[in-house]
Amino acid sequence: MDGKIFIGGGGEAYGDKQGLTLKYANRHGLVAGATGTGKTVTLQILAEGFAAAGVPVFLSDVKGDLSGLAAAGSETFKLHQAFTDRAVKIGFDDYAYRGFPVTFWDLFGEQGHPVRTTVSEMGPLLLSRLMELTEAQEGVLNIAFRLADEKGLPLLDLKDLQALLVWLGENRGEIALRYGNVSVHSIGAIQRRLLVLENQGANKLFGEPALELGDLMHVGADGRGQINILAADKLMGAPRLYATFLLWLLSELFEELPEVGDPDKPKLVFFFDEAHLLFDGAPKALVDKVEQVARLIRSKGVGVYFVTQNPDDIPEDILGQLGNRVQHALRAFTARDRKALKMASETYRPNPRFDTEAAIREVGVGEAVTSMLMKKGVPGIVERTLIRPPSSQLGPLDPATRRNVVASSPMAGKYDQLVDRRSAYEILQERSEKAAAEAEAAEAKEEEMSVAEREFSSARRYSGTRVRRSSSRTLRVRADDTFGEAMTKMVVKELSGTTGRRIVRGILGGLFKGR
């Protein structure tokens, strides 16, 4: 199909061949359906189609099954005959087994090249979402980022942010005059959430070298686009981290890529699997941001495809922008399920040959209800479609083959070694050590001055033999004085003082008064 990605169709009770028009592929899309209905295979054949058309792809491999894109299918595979029969039935004349150029990425650096960003690039909004902060705590985090910019403190990894929050707490009195109250409790809560992120492995996400978006958009010498696969099976253990990372990546694409209008084919196609994780409990500000990105990023030549179990998982304002749709079966076991099924069926342009709601409920595994954008971006009539079989291996690669693909990748060695350059943590540590040294020097100088002042106030003099105090009230007894003479001198000295004179006056006064 010229200018289209073949999806399927054909056969009795089915319409014409269905294809996704490349010119409208940046108008976004939806792949939905209950567990086990064939969403993963649909995602696989879409990735194959885009790569074959020279369009780079980024997708997350939640179950570990999509790594097979790197290898060709095999005639020894148990479903080989079923695939061949399906290809004949739907008119897939040039069906053949082949692998595709794949680059594996892994946030933890275990099953692919490490993928990192910096704390600054993530920004306070997404970090607040990641840590589930309250409004007050998010305000404190915004102050921290503002101060980092003003004071030239690069925030690259988590320890940079932790050090900055400590500094913020120590100087909160001065900062509050300009930015408002900075609560110690809020800082403590943020620090605890950062510790939770560390325990989940998020410290491996933040650092350098940071991911360069250009490395996701390679087109090979043979004209095929690169398929970037993010290993997400382990990452799904921290679903908030998974969703935040993908949203950050989408935001970065939006910020950095130039405007291209409506190209003949996308510059990149981005698949967001388990999309409901992005919106579960998301604050309105975040949903608004996703809606803005979805609306505007198509002009950057990027198509975004949400993969989820139910269209109801996607906010209505975003769902309305998803023009290309593949709807696998939905099961209506509850009243809520029936309501969601009815709403899903009403979003399609009806086909007089069948009831859309019934078709969505009845289609089997490997079948779907599809609607693709047509000329001028008009939604096509809904059709029941047999999804074409994949050309690449169905199921995961064995670990040895995967390691070979990673080792031979053009990205090998570029991101493997973590770089810890001078940033906020080191700068604040240097300032703290310098301040401590200055304080120690000042304390030593003060101690020295204090000793000198005591020496001066006590008026110590050197007599040649010993130090004596001129202010001493005791009388040094000479060796030739008798004990009586010494006592007499002492009494005379005391009586000559003020106290002594008072005593004498008191005694004499008493004597005279007695007379």
Describe this structure in words.
By secondary structure, the chain is of the alpha/beta class. It has three domains: 309 residues, 3-Layer(aba) Sandwich (Rossmann fold); 131 residues, no CATH class; 33 residues. It is built from 17 helices and 14 strands. Helix 5 packs antiparallel against helix 7 and helix 12 crosses helix 13. The longest helix has 35 residues. The C terminus is likely disordered. Pfam families: HerA_C.
Low-pLDDT ranges: 467-479, 501-515
- The rounded distance between the terminal residues' Cα atoms is 143 Å
CATH superfamily of the largest domain: P-loop containing nucleotide triphosphate hydrolases
Structural class: alpha/beta
Q: What is the number of independent domains? A: 3
Strand content: 5-15%
Number of E-state strands: 14
What is the average per-residue confidence, as pLDDT, rounded to a whole number? 86
- Rounded to the nearest angstrom, the radius of gyration is 39 Å
Number of helices: 17
Biggest beta sheet summary:
10 strands, mixed
For the largest sheet, list the strands in their spatial order. Answer: 6-5-7-4-8-9-3-10-11-12
Estimate the global geometry from the Cα principal axes: elongated
CATH topology of the largest domain: Rossmann fold
Domain Helicase HerA-like C-terminal: 15-511
Protein name: Helicase HerA-like C-terminal domain-containing protein
Organism: Shimia haliotis
Pfam families: HerA_C
Brief synopsis:
The protein has 17 helices and 14 strands. Strand 13 and strand 14 form a beta hairpin. Keywords: Coiled coil.
